[in-house]
Design goal:
alpha+beta, GIY-YIG endonuclease, three-stranded antiparallel β-sheet
Length: about 80
């Protein structure tokens, strides 16, 4: 299984969209383990949205869609208004 996920940093009003086959480990990496990269500057993160896919190519396509203008608009208007 592959998971497309959206992280949100309330402190900085930032979103991050990614894909992984191990969400638990990847989330730990974003919030605690990584020593470099874009996401370490905006900690802490919370998972606000996720979708699961059986095929890697499907997950990659959905990640690409969510990273588009319309995808980010969906996240801001539909997902973040709920939390």
């Amino acid at each position: 299984m592959y998971t497309v996920y959206v992280l949100y940093s309330k402190n900085f009003d930032k979103i991050y969209i990614g894909m992984t086959s191990n969400l638990e480990q990847r989330f730990l990496s974003h919030n605690e383990l990584s020593k470099k990269g874009w996401t370490i500057r905006f900690r802490p993160w919370e998972i606000v949205y996720k979708e699961e896919f059986a095929e890697k190519n499907e997950a990659m396509q959905r990640e690409k869609e969510l990273k588009s203008f319309k995808g980010r608009e969906f996240i801001r208007k539909q997902v973040l208004t709920i939390i």
